[in-house]
Design goal:
With 105 residues, the protein is an alpha+beta fold. Helix content is 30%, strand content 23%. The chain has a five-stranded mixed beta sheet with strand order 3-2-1-4-5, with helices on one face. A hairpin with a 5-residue loop joins β4 and β5. It is globular and about 35 Å long.
Length: 105
Amino acid sequence: MGNRAVMEFEGSEIGIYLHWNGGRNSVEKFLKRTRDILICTSNHEVDSLVEKVASVIDKCLGENSAVVGEVKFLDQDNYDNGTYIINRSLHIVGRRYFSGSEQTD
C-alpha cells in the first residue's frame, strides 16, 4: 500500500514512478519547484526535464524516492493516483487511471 502515482511527460517515453507522495498536491509542488529552478533557463529537452523533476523529488523526499524509467514499465494503473500527464511547461494537462477524490493536504 502506498500513495502511488506515475508522471508521464508528453514527448518522452521516460516517466517517474512515486510510491509515496503521489497526491496531486504533492505532484503540483514538485513541478512548481522545478519550474522555479528552471525559470532562468530555456529550451530544455523533455528527457532533461524528467531528470530535473526527479532530482527535485529526491531532494524533497530523500534519495531514490523518484524511480525514473520507461513509462510502459511503470505501474500506471496503481489503484491510488494513477498517471499524471505532464507537458513541457511542467503542468498537469491530463490524468489516466484515477477515479478517486483529490488529496488536498
